[in-house]
């Protein structure tokens, strides 16, 4: 990466539709065969409309997707400087207007699990509280939101309501203030999350639960792109868990 007040050349760029919630919804519905509804806000721009079209193609209900007037859809710039080093620049745009009022009643009555993707601390709190109120399983991926926005204490308060916490290695270490993955996973589980799933790239993942942990290797596959790999993992995990409630098979 360039230093301050300097520049560098970019080798390749490309555009894609997605985002944490949209990716997990699409993978779970299209490949997992689940009935999935997406809740989000889009702007009045072309990109927002294209996302809705793509979600329909992946058999995702978009009844919970609404437009925010005078806003543009979320933009995420992912900057890669090496295989395992990346920076996300996120402009929330329309999603800043998202609230629990955008959640369709039929989603609540017909769902088993709420999967809450990276958003604002306010949105996380509203949707976790609503899910718990209605007896839903809570899957939560905070991303790195609480590194910069809100307070880690707010994040920790949510964990007592979370059934499945999805974080990667850097996130686990940062949120737990620990120096090893084993210590980090155990600490996050003690804070209240029933299961803590830490993804480790090509090393697989570790799952922490009350009284222990298990490590699982990754499958060897041909990589098309690392973008959204964590979302694909979460979708596969959630699909199996919703059907079986079995962590081992998930």
TrEMBL record:
The keyword Kinase applies. Signal peptide: none annotated. One of its GO terms (molecular function) is kinase activity. Residues 14-249 form the Carbohydrate kinase PfkB domain. The keyword Magnesium does not apply. GO terms for biological process: phosphate-containing compound metabolic process. Keywords: Kinase, Transferase. This is Carbohydrate kinase PfkB domain-containing protein. It comes from marine sediment metagenome.
């Amino acid at each position: 990466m360039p230093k301050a007040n300097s520049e560098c050349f970019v080798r390749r760029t490309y555009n894609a539709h997605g985002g944490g919630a949209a990716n997990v919804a699409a993978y779970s519905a299209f490949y997992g065969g689940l009935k999935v509804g997406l809740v989000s806000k889009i702007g009045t721009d072309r990109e927002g409309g294209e996302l809705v079209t793509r979600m329909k193609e992946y058999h995702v209900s978009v009844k919970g997707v609404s437009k925010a007037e005078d806003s543009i859809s979320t933009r995420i710039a992912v900057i890669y400087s090496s295989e395992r080093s990346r920076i996300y620049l996120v402009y929330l745009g329309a999603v800043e207007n998202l609230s629990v009022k955008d959640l369709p009643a039929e989603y609540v009555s017909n769902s088993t699990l709420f999967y809450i993707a990276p958003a604002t601390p306010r949105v996380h709190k509203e949707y976790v509280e609503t899910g718990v109120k209605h007896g839903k399983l809570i899957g939560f991926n905070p991303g790195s939101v609480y590194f910069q926005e809100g307070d880690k204490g707010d994040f920790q308060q949510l964990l007592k309501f979370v059934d499945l916490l999805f974080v990667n290695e850097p996130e686990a270490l940062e949120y737990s203030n620990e120096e090893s993955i084993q210590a980090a996973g155990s600490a996050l589980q003690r804070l209240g999350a029933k299961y803590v799933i830490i993804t480790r790239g090509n090393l697989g993942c570790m799952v922490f639960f009350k009284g222990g942990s298990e490590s699982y290797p990754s499958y060897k596959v041909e990589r098309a792109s690392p973008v959204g790999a964590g979302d694909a993992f979460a979708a596969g995990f959630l699909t199996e868990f919703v059907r079986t409630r079995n962590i081992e098979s998930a």
